[in-house]
Amino acid sequence: MTLKDIIIKGWAERRHDVPRALHPYWPFCDELAVEDGLIVKGECIIIPASQEQHVFFQLHEGHQGSEKTKLRAKECVFRVGITKDIDTLVKNCPTCQRFQTAQPRETLLQHTRPWQVVGTDLFSLEVDNFLIMANSFIRKLPVPCTSQAETPPTKSPSHGVLTISPIPPTTPNPMDARAQNPKKKTIRKA
Questions:
Q1: How far is the C-alpha of 106 from the C-alpha of 96, rounded, in Å?
Q2: Which of 109, 107, 97 lies closest to 137 in space, CA to CA?
Q3: How confident is the model at residue 63 (pLDDT cuts 50, 70, 90)?
Q4: Could you tell me the CA-to-CA distances from 84 to 24, 45, 97 in Å, in that order?
Q5: Among 27, 69, 106, 118, which has the minimal tally of Cβ within 10 Å of its Cβ?
Q6: With helix as H, strand as E and coil as C, how does 52-68 read?
Q7: What is the distance, to the nearest Å, from the Cα of residue 168 to the centroid of all Cα atoms in its chain?
């Protein structure tokens, strides 16, 4: 019996009643269906044995490496053991092996001081243009940009720049409204 026959007739109640060659499909037997003569698992087509070479060639056409090929496969096709087969395909591909070392992994840089690395972005609000500079040490924009954050249009590198940073560790002025909430971030015009 073929996989298609089992799907059409219905799966047995117990795994050992299914032909041994179809045991790998047992864990997701309720997800398999036959549509227009093709076996599908959800939205993915089960690769027919006669088309495996062609499908793998199409998936690996751009020689983008193992992970990208797996992502492409995950979007449209399924086969038991496809991840292992893709790894083997890329490992044995001369083109991939030649260029694999040309793109080494980048080391993660650790930042130890605020303002050691700064991110910038330009944006417009109505007719005004702004440059926002964010401290990457904070990891996220601490103050949401709203229509209340206004500066004159950018004319020079320091004119109209919004800088965002935590409040510096100083003794707060009790008359300052920000002193009531020490965790509150400040926006100051450079």
A1: 19
A2: 109
A3: confident
A4: 14, 18, 17
A5: 106
A6: HHHHHHHHCCCCCCHHH
A7: 35
Residue 73: pLDDT band with limits 50, 70, 90: very high
Structure tokens, 141: 């924009």
Token pair for 118: 């700064």
For residue 25 the two structure tokens come to 């499909």
Place of tokens 């450079």: 190
pLDDT of residue 102: 59
pTM of the model: 0.51
Domain ranges for the chain, please list them. 3-100, 118-189
More confident residue, 81 or 173: 81
* CA distance linking residue 134 with residue 150, whole number of Å: 16
100: left (phi over 0), alpha (psi -120 to 50) or beta: alpha
pLDDT at 67 over 50: yes
Residue 123 gets which letter from DSSP?
A: E
Helix (H, G, I), strand (E, B), or coil: what is residue 176?
Answer: coil
At 116-143, the pLDDT tens digits run: 777 777 777 787 777 777 776 665 544 4
How many Cβ atoms sit within 10 Å of the Cβ of residue 155? Answer: 9
Measured CA to CA, the distance from residue 139 to residue 168 in angstroms comes to 17
Provide CATH code, domain 3-100. Answer: 1.10.340.70
Q: Name the one residue in this structure whose structure tokens are 């030649």.
A: 98
